[in-house]
Amino acid sequence: MKLQEYRSKEILERHGVPLLAGTTATTPDEAREAARAIGGPVVVKAQVLVGGRGKAGGVKLAATPDEAAEKAREIIGLDIKGTTVKTVLIAPAADIAHEYYLGLILDRATKAITVIASAEGGVEIEETAKTNPEAILRLPLHPLIGLQEHETRRIGFFLGIPAELRKDFAKVMRGLYAAFVESDADLAEINPLVVTDDGQLLALDAKIVLDDSALPRHPDLEEMRDLNEEEPSEIAAREAGISFIKLDGSIGCMVNGAGLAMTTMDLVKLAGGEPANFLDIGGGAKQDKVTAAFKIILDDPNVKAILINIFGGITRGDEVARGIVEARSNLERDVPMVVRIVGTNSEEAKPILAEANLITADSLDDAAAKAVAAVRGAA
Ligand code: GDP
Ligand code: MN
User: Ligand 1, closest atom to CA 54?
Assistant: First the structure.
């Protein structure tokens, strides 16, 4: 789950990272009030979950409260990379002397929380990685010991943090690390971390991405979710307890088990098709879950066929087949469905599926080929 900048800043501030938090506003009037309360030049910033807001016109300075209202009027309603801005953050403006990039990621390659740092802040790190990779420091941290003081010093030296700010930098580094670990994040980045003209170190922008699987133990963070920016189908899936990720293809997949779901997607591609989603209905899924899964898959107008791949262990094939037939009879939209059920009671499942006009398949290759053929037939 991605957190908005102002939410990410709340978390960082709680862990002692120096920043100028500000207030959110959803109307120009609220923006004016917020700026008046701050009582000096402010920055008006679009709160959307995409990078590069600055370049897209979503970050603007304002000298007076009236100007803040004006900038808010320009930014609210603006389309930034497909997202309409609903909320802006009004924060005290900083006079920037230097911008740095500082981030932590959970790096699967090194299997460690890894520091990413660059003295070329303000621009997207992916850009620096392409144009000037030597300007980036990657430092994996020890999984048990965590961030050590000598590492913080090394990062500070690499960035060229002024000597008088090294203590403050250590505070930023410790706070960022604690925020990352304690909120079970996948990513926590400050871009830019700045030194101001009057020699303060401040986090000017922040982005935290949380590990969805760890969210159940952070109800306070779950509340920071911005439903405004999530796919309605992904919200529905979460509520039904289904793992779902929307993709761009035309073959909807309904599978029990994450590994099997990935294999299914691979075989769809191998057969010349494109999966419309990753979907794992989980073990022992009953009819209500199958119904929810159908709705979620068919909500995507690109879906022209559905491939159902169920491995029956404890789950009995004939029960699943009956569940599929029943769930299908209640759908508003219908597409060809290819069903492969193997394992417990798969033989008993076959007549139930055949009678309901579902396309059956014995092997997964066969199922993928039939789903691709069904899409071509529909096109
Ligand atoms: P992003 O483009 O979505 O990453 O948004 P940022 O919050 O990082 O802002 C983009 C750029 O706007 C920063 O790199 C700064 O150069 C500039 N900026 C943001 N806040 C301030 C501020 O308070 N004062 C000044 N002078 N510039 C700012
Ligand atoms: Mn930024």
Answer: 2
